[in-house]
Amino acid sequence: xxxxxxxxxxxxxxxxxxxxxxxxxxxxxxxxxxxxxxxxxxxxxxxxxxxxxxxxxxxxxxxxxxxxxxxxxxxxxxxxxxxxxxxxxxxxxxxxxxxxxxxxxxxxxxxxxxxxxxxxxxxxxxxxxxxxxxxxxxxxxxxxxxxxxxxxxxxxxxxxxxxxxxxxxxxxxxxxxxxxxxxxxxxxxxxxxxxxxxxxxxxx
Length: 204
Prior knowledge:
This protein has 204 residues and is an alpha/beta fold. The protein is built from nine helices and four strands; from the N terminus they run βααβαβαβααααα. It has helices at residues 9-22, 24-27, 46-66, 86-102, 117-121, 128-131, 152-159, 170-179, 191-201, and strands spanning 2-5, 32-35, 73-79, 108-113. A four-stranded parallel beta sheet has the order 2-1-3-4, sandwiched between helices. α4 (86-102) links the parallel β3 and β4 (108-113). α1 (9-22) packs parallel to α8 and α3 packs across α4 (86-102). The longest helix has 21 residues, at 46-66. The two termini are 15 Å apart.
């Protein structure tokens, strides 16, 4: 079992498609299961952070016990609401250190998305018209560093066309990107996405 914790169900469904693309060896045989606790770690530090991570890790382990499954991995998502800059580096370093300390012997990955998970979806522009045929990602958002796109969700709402993009469309875009094998060849870059993929690659 791979357990996902995120800001909401939409984000966890996006993560599930990304994990299936990058770790088919693990996800083919493993259930991907979400725990419902909303993740709010990026503003915490010290004992508050330790307590919050302990709660999430405990619930991940409990979910595996409940379903009598081996816990193969634990993935945490949170939107940064900011650029992949020095602040991002500081927050990611703090969170990964806390995770590593509390998850010894357990594979973990941190999806600290800059600005948000919709910024990651911009790396797969060909997936959008597969969800809605009239959608087209504007040229100004193509082949960019999508970690530098402020409020990607609003950019998509304004730029794709009709019907207006909704958060619930994100998982559909990710599934199309997975099905059509777009994920291995992203268009553009995003350091926060690359860091997440690096975490997954480190799972042995």
